[in-house]
Amino acid sequence: MCKNIQCSCCGSVVAKIKDNKVVFDNMKAVSLIEFSLNGGDHQIKCHSCHNWLTIDNQNNISTNYKRKSEDALYSAENVTFKKGSPINLKNKKP
Global pTM? Predict the structure, then answer.
């Protein structure tokens, strides 16, 4: 039996569960995949809405809001102006 794993925000199918295994057959729907070797968790970033999904070792699906906020903070630190000069906000002197 096959079960679709859908993004909770946009509803696009990012993976499937076949024979109790997570299968990524449509790689255009996924931007990033991270596997945890210790806990067996999967972190998936949806390509269409850029939300992070977590699949645990019992195949429970949840939205990872902490990871999405970390992405937003990281992109805010690496701001680039149109002329191409990067700004490093961490080492900025007054």
Answer: 0.65
